[in-house]
């Protein structure tokens, strides 16, 4: 008899978060609003961390792990239908941050951690690539950085203070959520406690 299949993330879970975002008065300057969005992001990152753990502990094969990631990615990155433009933008920011998380996890499962450079070097290379308007390269560097983070290397968020706000800072923000999720994969409570 095989073990019951582990559920890493569900459409319903994501929908619950979206419903909360839709119902609350959101002000990005307000700490509670910012925390709600961060929890939404962290919650998805925790699902990714759990898939990575299951893969690293041989509870999932490479193919199964990629399938699970794809499933979570499709739920989290699906287009959101909100009437409120500002909330749509805020959710879009969360989704943007998570893009790099999914790619990094897939890359890690497919090819293992990169050995070529440190997380800091990759983040710097990504910032330089963004400055040169080469966003594909920037994302590529951060995906490599992500594989190192998954492998246990620290991402120093002080680096980000020097990076101009843009896609790279959003993606690094996602990697920070992933790093937190990997070190403490506790479920973020949906009830706001």
From TrEMBL:
Organism: Halogranum rubrum
Pfam families listed in its UniProt record: DUF2150
Descriptive protein name: DUF2150 family protein
Lineage of the organism: Archaea, Methanobacteriati, Methanobacteriota, Stenosarchaea group, Halobacteria
UniProt xrefs under InterPro entries: UCP022079
């Amino acid at each position: 008899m095989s073990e019951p299949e582990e559920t890493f993330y569900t459409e319903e879970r994501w929908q619950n978060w979206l419903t909360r975002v839709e119902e609350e008065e959101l002000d990005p300057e307000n700490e509670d609003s910012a925390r709600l969005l961060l929890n939404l992001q962290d919650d998805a990152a925790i699902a990714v961390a759990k898939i990575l753990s299951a893969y690293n502990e041989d509870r999932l094969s490479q193919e199964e792990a990629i399938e699970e990631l794809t499933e979570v990615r499709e739920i989290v990155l699906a287009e959101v239908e909100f009437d409120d433009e500002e909330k749509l933008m805020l959710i879009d920011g969360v989704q943007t941050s998570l893009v790099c998380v999914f790619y990094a996890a897939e890359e890690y499962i497919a090819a293992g951690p990169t050995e070529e450079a440190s997380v800091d070097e990759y983040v710097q290379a990504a910032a330089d690539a963004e400055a040169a308007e080469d966003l594909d390269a920037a994302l590529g560097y951060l995906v490599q950085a992500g594989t190192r983070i998954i492998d246990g290397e620290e991402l120093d968020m002080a680096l980000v203070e020097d990076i101009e706000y843009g896609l790279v800072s959003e993606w690094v923000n996602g990697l920070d959520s992933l790093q937190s999720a990997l070190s403490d994969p506790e479920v973020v409570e949906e009830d706001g406690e």
